[in-house]
Structure prediction request, 384 residues.
Amino acid sequence: MTGDLYPSRSGQLGHRQESTNLADILERVLDKGIVIAGDIRINLLDIELLTIKIRLLVASVDKAREIGIDWWEHDPSLSSGRSDLAVENQKLRERIGELEASNGDRARSPDGAQARRGEVRTDNAARDE
Amino acid sequence: MNDHSVYLYAIGDAALADSDALAYSTGVEAGPLRTIVEGPLAAVVASVDRNQFSEQSLHAHLEDLEWVEKLARTHHEVVDRIAQNHSIAPVRMATVYLTDDGIRELLQSRCSELAATLDRVRGRSEWGVKGYAAPVDEASTPERDASSSDTPGTSYLMRRRAQRDRSAHRRERLATVAEKLHEEFAALAVDSRVYPPQDPRLTGRRDEMVLNAAYLVDEAGAALLARLVDAAPEELQLELTGPWAPYSFTNLEAT
Prediction:
């Protein structure tokens, strides 16, 4: 079934390229079409698609996988990649510590030292994204 | 009848009343579909349990993702099946009236608007095109240049920065490609809409979405669109879905 979730482009004209991807369906039925306030008032806009998905993920990993949501498997911060990152991070921190220690006497200018640290922090922030 | 409310799926021509399409589908709660005809228009509806579809229960149900998925899929299937043979305007999910009369009144009071909307989509269908920036081959990132620096920390940072610059540049370029393609697609469509890209976590794909658009086309337009999508450059992965009922092209102002 997973093969159908993300129909790839196809040159077969007139052939239905149906999307059974829940995200695609929700994008349309929740957001579009004729919007009429019926007698029962509910605000669908309160429901963010992303919230739905994340809660779906929490509810059932198997279910999520079934409908094609498996991004966490590729996200290094959420899967096995994590330990490697932590080790690498630790090594970098140690290395920075050494560099700063050996620089401490030579670099009297606080600006220089700050620039170095700033650079490192920026990169850490980017990695955590 | 008092313990039922009326769930509205779509609005179409009065001829829908005689359609076989309704007989083969069931609505939410597996109830039979029926039509409410008023003048030139028909509404496709099903009776639903009033308690299940009260404001209070709906709020609670919409927190239940299995329930939401089931409703979304049923709503979509009903709309989709009818749209294969009829021009219809889908109504947003979970639109509920207390009585048939409420829907009759809607068909009456907004008759010309609804009829004009139906005319606009008649004989046409909606196709969705999503474009993804194809993932960069990780192996193609350049090896560490030993001569650039002898401190591993600095060269690591420089490599990271170069990598970031490259991917930002590439994203920008692909966004431009996507924009040009959209213009080509839109030129052969009766109407088009561009939507914000879906979050990568929602699409379940790592590659970034750079185009999320819908096109209203007739049959010939659909064939041309498929051809153009096929001819698009490989670095932009295009995904064509459809035909959809014209969800994106039946907006009415809310009252």
